[in-house]
Amino acid sequence: MRSTALTRIAVGVVIERCKAKSPWLDFLWRPISVLVGTPSATPWTQIGQEGDATTFYAGEAAIELHRTETANYRDNLSSGTPALWVVLRPRPTNSSRPAFNILMVTADPSEGEALTDAGNDLVATVPMPASIIETIELFIAEHHIERPFNKRQRDRGEPRLPGHRSENTENSK
């Protein structure tokens, strides 16, 4: 499938695995940061361990910027704590490969929140690095077009009730 993104920002995703305190789960997973660019490490390289928590470089992804979403990017940056949404898709438990696939990373809050609605995907926010903030600010400055909000007016006519005939249909018999 061909992307319509005007800009792509390569990132590496760092996730953390912690020992769960639940009898039903062995581990809890969560994205903790993104690295700007693509690291030379292979995906699922362990990069740290502290107590029961282990951090991994999970792999690379690309943040795609679309000119129609500049208002959403602007809202994200003006929130005071700009964030990226990382979406991880679990692999089958009997798989010999790592626990998750990186589905996407997005700077669009609407898209990130929409991905939390259904399914088994793990969706979490991570802080947006300063260099990505700068790239998005430049993208907004170049591509944003202010679109006025036009509220649609309701039709003030009589509401048509199901099964209700208008006067014209009754007189035509």
The N- and C-terminal alpha carbons lie at a distance of: 56 Å
- Gross morphology is extended
Order of helices and strands: EEEEHEEHEHH
Side by side, the strands of the main sheet go: 2-1-4-3
Strand composition percent? 35-45%
Mean pLDDT: 85
| Helical coverage, percent range | 10-25%
Helix and strand composition category: alpha+beta
What is the radius of gyration computed over CA atoms, rounded to a whole number of angstroms? 23 Å
Total number of β-strand segments?
7
Note the main sheet. 4 strands, antiparallel
* Number of H- or I-type helical stretches: 4
Model regions low in confidence, pLDDT < 50 over at least 5 residues: none
Describe the structure.
This protein starts with 6 loop residues before the first strand and ends with a helix. The strands form two sheets. The chain has a four-stranded antiparallel sheet with strand order 2-1-4-3. Strands 6-5-7 form a three-stranded antiparallel sheet. It has 173 residues and is of the alpha+beta class. A hairpin with a 7-residue loop joins strand 1 (7-19) and strand 2 (27-36). It contains four helices and seven strands. Helix 1 (70-77) crosses helix 3.
Keywords:
single chain, 173 residues, alpha+beta, three-stranded antiparallel sheet, 19% helix
